[in-house]
Design a protein that fits this description.
single chain; 116 residues; mainly beta; Thrombin, subunit H; 4-stranded antiparallel β-sheet; 0% helix; SMP-30
């Protein structure tokens, strides 16, 4: 939830149903909150923190493991993994209209449509 600076989680059951939403983490700083999300192969969540000029890598327990600071502007809005090994994290930055790239050690998880 961008305005509340929160990331919510919903337990997904084997039958596809979900139950009560809860707060996964609460981010601080900047005039806006979390926006685009991506998952890596280790199950960590990557979060574009709009208004803070940052992409965070959070553990499955919401521990901050890494901060990737924007070199362009403060409005990091979305994330996508790509590149030949899936280790390039592309970050959109809407203040300057830039697409940034950071090469990470851990590749991204394949998208559902690409998982075979």
């Amino acid at each position: 939830v961008t305005r509340a600076n929160q990331i919510w989680r919903l337990p997904l059951h084997a039958d596809g149903s979900v139950t009560k939403a809860s707060i996964f983490c609460h981010l601080h700083g900047g005039p806006s909150g979390p926006d685009g999300l991506a998952l890596d192969a280790e199950g960590c969540l990557l979060v574009a923190h709009a208004g803070f000029g940052t992409a965070w890598r959070l553990s499955p327990r919401a521990e901050p493991l890494a901060r990737i600071a924007s070199c362009a502007g403060w409005s990091t809005t979305n994330l996508a993994f790509g590149g030949p090994e899936g280790r390039d994290l592309f970050i959109t930055e809407s203040e300057t209209g830039s697409i940034l790239r950071a090469t990470l050690e851990t590749p991204g998880q394949p998208l559902f449509s690409h998982a075979g």
